[in-house]
Design a protein that fits this description.
Elements (H helix, E strand, L loop, with lengths): L1 H21 L2 E15 L9 E5 L7 E11 L2 E10 L18 E8 L3 E9 L1 H10 L8 H4 L10 E12 L2 E8 L12 E10 L2 E12 L2 E15 L2 E12 L3 H5 L15 E13 L4 E16 L5 E16 L4 E14 L10 E12 L1
Antiparallel strand pairs: 1-2, 1-3, 1-17, 3-4, 4-5, 5-6, 6-7, 7-8, 8-9, 9-10, 10-11, 11-12, 12-13, 13-14, 14-15, 15-16, 16-17
C-alpha cells in the first residue's frame, strides 16, 4: 500500500511539474446580450412590432480558448466558440452548427505571428468587427445591412489562416479549401487584409474572393480610424462588392420581404460609411454611424434588374454598470428605393428603438 501511495504521489508530482513547465491554460469566456426592440413597418401590412431579440452590436456567445507554451516564444493555441440566441436558447444558425464562430487549432510565435487551421473568421471580418466599423458590424438589419452580401462569407470552413504584427503593420491572410474532387478552386476562398497604425491614424485595406460552385463573390474594402483624443474617434470607409452567385440579392433581404422572381448574375454594390465613438464619461459611451449603398444590376420586385440606393443612421448610448455589465439604448432609421424595395417587408423605411442589457464573462 505504501509503495502504491508513493508511486501515485510521484506520478502526480511528475504531472504537476510537466504542467508547470508547459504553462498550459484553458479559459471559458463569453457574453450574454439581448434587447427589447420597437420597429415600424415590420410586415407587409406596415404594422409595428415589439420583440425581444439579439443585441445591437454583440450576439451572445460562449467559448473555450487555450494555449500551451512550447518554449522559444512559441505556443500551441486553440479556440472553440459558439453563438446562440439568448431569448430562445437555440443555436443562432439554420444548420445547427455547434461552433459557428470559431473552431481552430494552431501555433503562435511572439515574433513571427500565428498560423491556425479550422473554421475561422475571415480577415475582413476581423478588421471590420474589431476596429474599423463604428458599430463593430451590428446585429440589427437596420445597422448591418451593408454587410449582408458578404454575410455568408464572414466565416470559412476548412481554412488555414495567418496573422502577424510587425511594428505598426498588422497583416492577415486566409485560404479556404473547397474540397471538390478534380477542382482545387471550386468552393474555395482566399482573403487578405492589412492595417497600419501611424500615431493617431490607422488605415486598412483588404480583398476577399469566394467561389460558389464555380461562380465568384468578390469584396474589396478600405477604411480609416482617426483618434482626436483617447476618448474620441472618427471612422470612415468604402466597400465594393461584385456578386456572380446570385446570393447577394437574397441575403440582402429582411425576414418577411417578398420572394424574388429572379436573382442577378452580376450585382455590384458600392457602400460608404462614416461614424464616431466618444467615451463621454467613464461609464457613458456614445456612437453614431451612417451607411449608404448604391446597388447596380440588382434584382427588383418585378423580376427585372436595376439600380437602387439605401441609407441608414444609428445612434447608440452605452452605460457601464461595472467592468462586465452595461445597459444601452439605440435609435435607428433606414430607407431605400429602386432595387432596395425588395428588401423591405412593408414600406421602404423603418425606425427602430431598443434597450438592452449585456454581461461579459
Amino acid at each position: 500500500m505504501k509503495k502504491t501511495t508513493a508511486a501515485l504521489g510521484a506520478a502526480l508530482l511528475a504531472l504537476s511539474a510537466q504542467s508547470a513547465f508547459a504553462q498550459s491554460s484553458v479559459t471559458l469566456y463569453g457574453l450574454v446580450d439581448t434587447s427589447v426592440r420597437y420597429l415600424t413597418n415590420a410586415n407587409a401590412g406596415n404594422d409595428s412590432q415589439i420583440a425581444m431579440g439579439e443585441g445591437v452590436e454583440t450576439p451572445s456567445r460562449f467559448g473555450l480558448k487555450g494555449s500551451e507554451d512550447l518554449g522559444g516564444g512559441t505556443s500551441a493555441i486553440f479556440k472553440l466558440e459558439n453563438q446562440f440566441q439568448l431569448w430562445s436558447g437555440k443555436f443562432d444558425n439554420s444548420n445547427n452548427t455547434l461552433f459557428q464562430r470559431n473552431a481552430y487549432v494552431g501555433l503562435s510565435n511572439n515574433q513571427y505571428g500565428a498560423l491556425t487551421l479550422g473554421r475561422q473568421q475571415t480577415p475582413f471580418f476581423d478588421m471590420m468587427g474589431n476596429t474599423f466599423d463604428p458599430l463593430t458590424v451590428g446585429d440589427y438589419w437596420q445597422d448591418s445591412w451593408v454587410y449582408n452580401p458578404v454575410g455568408p462569407f464572414l466565416f470559412t470552413n476548412s481554412s488555414v489562416k495567418y496573422n502577424g504584427t510587425f511594428g505598426g503593420l498588422h497583416v492577415e491572410g486566409m485560404y479556404g479549401f473547397g474540397g471538390v474532387p478534380g477542382s482545387t478552386g471550386q468552393n474555395s476562398m482566399y482573403g487578405f487584409a492589412a492595417s497600419y497604425a501611424l500615431g493617431p491614424l490607422e488605415a486598412v485595406a483588404g480583398f476577399q474572393q469566394n467561389d460558389v460552385s464555380g461562380k465568384k463573390f468578390n469584396i474589396a474594402n478600405v477604411g480609416a480610424v482617426y483618434s482626436f483624443t483617447p476618448t474620441l474617434k472618427v471612422l470612415a470607409g468604402w466597400l465594393h462588392s461584385q456578386d456572380n452567385t446570385g446570393l447577394a440579392d437574397v441575403d440582402m433581404q429582411q425576414s418577411g420581404a417578398p420572394t424574388l422572381a429572379h436573382v442577378s448574375p452580376n450585382r455590384i454594390d458600392d457602400s460608404f460609411y462614416v461614424g464616431s465613438t466618444w467615451q463621454v464619461t467613464a461609464p457613458l459611451a456614445l456612437t453614431v454611424a451612417g451607411y449608404y449603398d448604391h446597388a447596380r444590376n440588382a434584382a427588383q420586385l418585378d423580376g427585372s434588374l436595376g439600380n437602387g440606393i439605401n441609407y441608414s443612421a444609428t445612434v447608440l448610448a452605452e452605460y457601464s454598470l461595472s467592468k462586465r455589465t452595461e445597459v444601452y439604448g439605440t435609435v435607428d432609421f433606414t430607407r431605400g428605393n429602386g432595387a432596395f424595395l425588395a428588401d423591405y417587408p412593408g414600406r421602404n423605411n423603418q425606425t427602430g428603438v431598443a434597450i438592452g442589457l449585456r454581461n461579459i464573462f
